[in-house]
């Protein structure tokens, strides 16, 4: 059993490495071809979608939509604002409220954003039978536990490096 269990371990570690490499390569593609990080793309997309459905878009709305902390989302908005893709404006009725909107350049970019890797993953996962989805989740939870990672709070944003939910 010892030798075969080592083979399983190698196979599992290779599968994990393929997943990590796919996330990393997609992130590099976005940075190179689109000029945005994954969190920036998701936040820009969220601002555009929220603008289409509601009058006011705030950092809190965007943070909820992309499941990142408000502090992290605010820092991402700083970068998008410096890139002239998003503008912040005080609400005319309540000066304490700051609203976000796409600039003309941001609106143009919004129209051509690629589908994020996690959106494609979710679409494919949703196409599986519920029993298959449960098996996958249970197996991944077990892998996380085996790697002493079950207590790590993580956003569902597929990005390499630091966890974006923690604000890093």
Q: What is the CATH architecture assignment?
A: Orthogonal Bundle
Largest sheet: 2 strands, antiparallel
Instruction: Please bin the fraction of helical residues.
Output: 55-70%
Beta-strand share of residues:
5-15%
Q: What is the rounded distance between the termini?
A: 42 Å
Q: Unreliable runs, pLDDT <50, ≥5 residues? A: 162-168
Q: How many helix segments?
A: 7
Side by side, the strands of the main sheet go 1-2
Basic shape = elongated
Total individual domains: 1
Look at the structure and give the mean pLDDT. Answer: 85
| E-strand count | 2
Write out the CATH superfamily name: Winged helix-like DNA-binding domain superfamily/Winged helix DNA-binding domain
* CATH-derived topology: Arc Repressor Mutant, subunit A
Report Rg: 19 Å
Q: Class, according to the CATH hierarchy?
A: Mainly Alpha
Structural class: mainly alpha
- Please provide the ordered H/E string of secondary-structure elements: HHHHEEHHH
Provide tags for this entry:
two-stranded antiparallel ribbon, mainly alpha, 2 strands, 7 helices, 62% helix, 168 residues, 6% strand, single chain
Structure overview:
The chain is mainly alpha-helical. The chain has one domain: Orthogonal Bundle (Arc Repressor Mutant, subunit A). Helices cover 62% and strands 6% of the residues. The protein is built from seven helices and two strands. The chain has a two-stranded antiparallel sheet. Helix 2 packs across helix 3, helix 2 packs across helix 4 and helix 3 packs across helix 4. The longest helix is centred in the N-terminal third of the chain and has 33 residues. The radius of gyration is 19 Å and the shape is elongated. It starts with a helix and ends in a 22-residue tail after the last helix. The C terminus is likely disordered.
């Amino acid at each position: 059993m010892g030798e075969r269990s080592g083979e399983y371990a190698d196979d599992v570690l290779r599968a994990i490495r393929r997943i990590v490499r796919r996330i990393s390569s997609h992130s590099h593609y976005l940075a190179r071809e689109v000029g945005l990080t994954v969190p920036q793309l998701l936040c820009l997309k969220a601002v555009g979608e929220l603008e289409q459905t509601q009058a006011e878009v705030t950092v809190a709305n965007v943070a909820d939509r992309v499941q990142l902390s408000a502090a992290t989302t605010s820092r991402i908005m700083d970068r998008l604002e410096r890139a002239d893709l998003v503008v912040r404006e005080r609400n005319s009725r309540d000066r304490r409220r700051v609203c976000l909107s796409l600039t003309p350049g941001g609106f143009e970019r919004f129209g051509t954003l690629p589908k994020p890797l996690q959106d494609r993953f979710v679409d494919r996962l949703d196409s599986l039978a519920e029993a298959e989805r449960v098996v996958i989740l249970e197996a991944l939870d077990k892998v996380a536990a085996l790697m002493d990672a079950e207590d790590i709070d993580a956003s569902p944003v597929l990005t390499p490096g630091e966890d974006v939910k923690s604000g890093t």
